[in-house]
Write a structure and sequence with these properties.
By secondary structure, this protein is an alpha+beta fold. The protein has 8 helices and 5 strands. It has a 3-stranded antiparallel beta sheet. A two-stranded antiparallel ribbon has the order 1-2. The radius of gyration is 34 Å and the shape is elongated.
């Protein structure tokens, strides 16, 4: 079932809301909140889709995509993914072309035709241009909420962490740093006597090497003292 089928209108607004999109359900389905004004468009999340190359794997060509989503100028998500040309055609191009009016499709995609079947030279560039046009259409609210949900799903957009999860992660990170610092201090304290002994032995060896006669004299006195103490 696609994102625009009956029965999912009530789930679209909260799903899109996780990504910063403002939508509402009504008698005519799910619509964007507010009118199409400059202020509304500035607040509308901005999607970027770039096709950066391709790689061969398991007998298929996988196209490398890099996506990002920003809200009010603040980047919230960045993620890479790989998709076959067939998947991009069947799950993005065909549904978008079918659901948009011919006028709207021509407005955004008229100069950026989708890539041909077969993966001919220039396919990556054609895909990149088409995906950029799709992002432009999405950012200008040319795509309905259902279509945007479909795009995010096909692009495997990871859901942003909630503020609560982000706070828990930050607190855990701080706690880990304190534990590591405490362990470091404990280790240094435990190793201090051994390190001091090693430094004294090293200093004695250096002194003996530089002053052999004095070192022999000192050794003789130490031996005599030890002998007297024994008796």
């Amino acid at each position: 079932m696609s994102a625009t089928d009956d029965g999912v209108f009530d789930t679209l607004p909260p799903y899109l809301g996780k990504f910063g999109y403002l939508a509402e359900s009504g008698a005519e389905g799910t619509q964007w909140k507010g009118d199409v004004s400059e202020a509304t468009l500035r607040a509308h999340p901005q999607l970027e889709i770039h096709v950066t190359g391709h790689a061969e794997g398991e007998g298929h060509t996988q196209y490398l995509l890099h996506c990002s989503l920003s809200v009010s100028g603040v980047r919230r998500l960045d993620w890479p993914l790989q998709k076959r040309l067939r998947i991009l055609r069947e799950e993005l191009h065909c549904p978008i072309k079918e659901q948009l009016s011919p006028e709207i499709y021509e407005q955004y995609f008229g100069r950026t035709p989708f890539a041909h079947k077969g993966g001919f030279p220039g396919t990556t560039a054609r895909l990149d241009a088409w995906c950029s046009a799709l992002a432009e259409c999405t950012n200008a609210r040319g795509c309905s909420p259902g279509m945007v949900a479909m795009v995010l799903n096909v692009l495997e957009a990871p859901e942003p962490r909630s503020a609560k999860d982000a706070a828990k992660s930050a607190a855990s990170s701080v706690a880990d740093r304190f534990r590591n610092a405490a362990q470091t201090v404990k280790t240094k304290v435990e190793q201090a006597p051994q390190q001091a002994q090693q430094k004294m032995e090293q200093a004695a060896l250096v002194y003996a090497a530089r002053n052999p006669q004095a070192a022999l004299g000192m050794a003789s006195k130490v031996a005599k003292t030890a002998s007297m103490a024994k008796w």
